[in-house]
Amino acid sequence: MIKSLIVSGAVATAAALASSGAYAGPYANIENNASYVDGFSGAVTDLAVGYEGGEGPYNFYAQGGFALVDDTDEISTQLSGKVGAAITLADSGLNFYGEFSGITTDDEPAFATKAGVKLPF
User: Fold this and answer.
1) What is the phi/psi pair of residue 16, to 5°?
2) Domain ranges of the chain
3) Mean pLDDT across the stretch 92-121?
4) pTM strictly above 0.85
5) DSSP letters along 47-105, please?
6) Rounded to the nearest 5 degrees, what angle is found at the Cα of 98, between the Cα atoms of 4 and 56?
7) Could you tell me which of 1, 5, 7, 2 has the C-alpha nearest to residue 112?
């Protein structure tokens, strides 16, 4: 379940990165990703600080912090982080993006990757 929550959070973050403006610098991020399969399955709320930047068509970000994991039985505190990058082709607006994220768990760390292409029309 936690892995699917990480992936859904990664998709949301990539969409934000792919459409981000020219801002560069530190930021705070609070993000909740919940899962519903035959009812509530769980949620992860990230409380992170990060840095984003880039120049021209290139953008990147890195963030880390705490994750509050609600697995319906109890809420635990874990560590989470993600790094991502994007490049936009100026003529077409075509945007390529990717992200690597991870979170600690009670058993083993969980990792996720994401890659995508966004074409505005």
Assistant:
1) -65, -40
2) 2-118
3) 94
4) no
5) EEEEEEEEETTEEEEEEEEEEEEE-SS-EEEEEEEEEEEEEE-TTT--EEEEEEEEE--
6) 150
7) 7
